[in-house]
Amino acid sequence: MLKIPSKTSSVSIESAATLSVENVSWSSAKSERMILSPISFSLEPGRILGVTGPNGAGKSTLLRLLYRYHMPNTGSVKINGVDIWSIPAREAARTVAAVLQEQPTDFALTVHEIVSLGRIPHRKGFSAAHGAHDTNIVLNTLDRLELSHFANRQFGTLSGGERQRVMVARALAQEPKLMVLDEPTNHLDIRHQLEVLELIRDLPLTIVTSLHDLNMATSVCDDVLILKDGRSLGFGTPETVFSEETISNAFRVTAKRDRLVSSNAKHLSFNL
Asked: Is 178 within the bounds of a domain?
């Protein structure tokens, strides 16, 4: 059995933020249908939230509200008590970073150049030059994510897992306090899924990530939010939220929860 890395308690949270989502909702201007009904939750610094639910549940829409791609129709998204729409876009980009689901493979840029893009929100004026401080942050980020030996490689020559790691590095170079990841394991094989999950587990940030795999969410996340048809079915720890009834309702299946006991840990699995 492949062991999914579980979250450790040794991660420093000095750079993490408190996230408060208060009654946020969103609907497309092209449609009167409410894509996301009012939702509220809060995360303490350094916690990992997994957003789960079937396709079309509103997961990506919620994440777009968190990284300021969409402005909510109602409510607010606050990081350390500050509404992200009350500050300039550049300042917001220094606070929250996003790693999206689909990454282009035809970037005519090297790994070093892509990670350097994360420093753009910190530049002053119209300067395009990197200072010594920016350079050190990029180099340290490459080293931390074990990408230094890829620094001069073209992005398109990397594997899916390697590309995902590069995009996480770019987001880390922004020095955010909140990181949002939309289906970070999508289209990856098992090995690269586990690599990305281990990386997420060890980041010293507050993290919100959408995940399809409930077992992964159980192992990696401190809290989970289940969405269905744009509405919340539950928020809290995986042990309390992932009930057979809630899972069955969300995914329209008959779910059974088994507790598997190994020599090291207990794992929750769902037979759908």
From this structure: yes
